[in-house]
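User: Hi! I have a protein structure encoded as tokens and I'd like to know what sequence might fold into it. I'm fairly new to this, so please keep things simple.
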């Protein structure tokens, strides 16, 4: 498996491993969609290296984060405003890297009042944060730190936050907790305006490690998710294997206690998917997930089916790298007919990522490449999924690529729009 392009070495430190480009194959099939870069990050106060999903508001504006750049070189929260003259980037907040955190990796979510919530993977007295951005009548945004994770000397909140029906926030941290395998947490608003943090579960390794997806809350209030490694399934020939990952379920009980159950342990071999990634959702009591490895090692989209004895895995589509993409990553967006849109970090015609669609049919799930990144001005190495607007257009970010090349000698990243060809 090719190494990830984003390596976290300490809080908020980034290193980019860029693959060698391979030439496009002559006579390959034309793309099924058109791509347009709606913003090319410049590497200054506007930020650079976006790794977050984008969030749409009711007016069609897009919100996201950058891990680096800004006024203090500690990351930003930005808005892309849809105007009559095209898209315009507006800086909502620039992290200072001290009292307010830094280097957000995940995206932001809205509450019902129009406030934004997100996480910073950098320092507030040495710890990661959950923050709130509140707009005023003049269009200015004020940041408030709701919580800093004082129990971990190393933490990475790498997944989007999720609200439940009661206004509580849930999140999964990729690294951190007493056992450094990551945690699932809840933030509960208090009557005095403060937020109380409750650690629902700290992963120890055999029960999973490094949560790779945002949590999903079912109708009974149970919290579901996946970890990229951990579990008891053998993943390598080494006796010190960290496991291939798990799907977990957290069930609330009396006295505010939560109980974790491992729904599924991933085991390498037999064409099975392993190392689940962020494309996690529930449908009709079944679990659907993407993985960065599996089958031939290039990733998969699969279903976990419940039964009385044990959950079973059914691979619905295997990625082969060329031309369909490699290592699906980020969330999946649902289309009007139940189709699923997503991205791969690598693969495609120039081996720098694709946008794909998965459609269910009588013959099973079929994958089509909507767009294959070219590796330069159109962006490359998407590290987050896509979001769909009411017109069916898709929006996302790429970690690198674009017009500017002044970000530690590399390209600074893009935000893009995908329009389906009809």
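Assistant: Happy to help. Inverse folding works backwards from shape to sequence: for each of the 422 positions I chose a residue that suits the local structure. Here it is:
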């Amino acid at each position: 498996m090719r190494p990830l392009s984003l390596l976290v070495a300490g809080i908020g430190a980034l290193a980019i491993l860029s693959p060698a480009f391979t030439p496009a194959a002559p006579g390959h099939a034309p793309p099924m969609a058109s791509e347009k870069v709606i913003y090319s990050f410049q590497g200054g106060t506007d930020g650079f290296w976006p790794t977050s999903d984008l969030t749409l508001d009711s007016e069609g504006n897009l919100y996201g984060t950058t891990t680096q750049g800004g006024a203090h070189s500690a990351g930003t929260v930005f808005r892309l405003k849809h105007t009559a003259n095209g898209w315009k980037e507006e800086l909502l907040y620039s992290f200072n890297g001290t009292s307010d955190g830094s280097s957000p990796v995940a995206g932001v979510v809205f509450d019902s009042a129009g406030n934004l919530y997100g996480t910073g993977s950098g320092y507030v007295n040495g710890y990661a944060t959950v923050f709130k951005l509140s707009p005023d009548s003049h269009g200015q945004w004020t940041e408030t730190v709701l919580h800093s994770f004082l129990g971990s000397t190393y933490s990475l909140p790498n997944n989007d936050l999720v609200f439940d029906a009661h206004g509580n926030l849930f999140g999964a941290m990729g690294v951190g907790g007493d056992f450094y395998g990551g945690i699932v947490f809840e933030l509960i608003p208090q009557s005095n305006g403060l937020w109380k943090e409750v650690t629902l579960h700290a992963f120890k390794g055999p029960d999973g490690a490094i949560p790779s997806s945002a949590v999903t809350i079912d109708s009974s209030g149970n919290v579901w998710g996946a970890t990229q490694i951990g579990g008891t399934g053998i993943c390598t020939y080494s006796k010190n294997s960290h496991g291939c990952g798990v799907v977990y379920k957290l069930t609330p009980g009396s006295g505010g206690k939560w109980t974790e159950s491992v729904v599924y342990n991933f085991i390498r071999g037999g064409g099975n998917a392993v190392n689940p990634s962020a494309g996690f959702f529930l449908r009709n009591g079944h679990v659907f997930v993407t993985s960065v490895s599996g089958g031939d090692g290039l990733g998969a989209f699969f279903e976990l089916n419940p039964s009385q004895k044990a959950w079973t895995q059914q691979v619905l589509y295997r990625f082969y790298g060329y031309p369909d993409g490699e290592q699906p990553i980020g969330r999946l967006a649902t289309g009007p007919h139940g189709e699923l849109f997503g991205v791969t970090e690598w693969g495609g015609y120039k081996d720098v990522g694709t946008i794909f669609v998965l459609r269910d049919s009588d013959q099973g799930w079929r994958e089509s490449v909507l767009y294959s990144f070219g590796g330069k001005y159109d962006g490359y190495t998407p590290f987050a999924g896509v979001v769909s607007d009411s017109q069916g257009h898709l929006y996302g970010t790429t970690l690198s690529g674009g017009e500017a090349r002044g970000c530690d000698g590399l390209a600074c990243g893009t935000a893009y729009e995908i329009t389906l060809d009809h």
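A useful reference point when you look it over: Residues 132 and 337 are 35 Å apart (CA to CA). Feel free to ask if any position seems puzzling.
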